[in-house]
Fold this protein.
Amino acid sequence: MVYDLYKFETILPIFSTILDGHVELNKYLKEIILEHRKEYPQSNVSNVRAWHSDWHTHKLNPKFKPFCDMVADQCTLVGKNYYGGNYKYDVETMWAMMYEFGEHTVKHVHFPNTFAASYYIEVGSKSSPIVFENNLIGSDPSLTIQPKNGMLLIWPAFIPHMVLPTQSKRMAISLNLSPSKYVPQGSQRRYNDF
């Protein structure tokens, strides 16, 4: 079957925040990532050209559950406040990454998930940025975001992105999220402002 393709310009948001209490959270996450890597030293094969854990690390290691729940709550909030959807989001996949000098991630997308997210635990001033591609005519071809410790990024999962070769160590967690259920108006719990 052949499809006609229609294109139009639109704005695709990337949501960014520095989490409250990230210093303590990052100490906790760094400790469990290092423990996890010791137990599972073999890296997955993927677009990430650095050590990274299994796609279902959150299921292998329950110590990641509180963090995953927090990111799911943030995605639920973004979906509700930005897109007007009353859906609860759950983490489908989650993996930890530890980049060394020169390591990178090739361009990819996280479709068919709704949201993708990255959280930065330990990044230095020479850690590589994440680059999002922009295919709009007459617009800048990409958006480059320099990560900071405690930064959570959330974006529509179909946006192409990559990580440039890093000049210093870089520890992060990435997640894919999809809606798990519809929450009728008036019955959902209240979320803090994003």
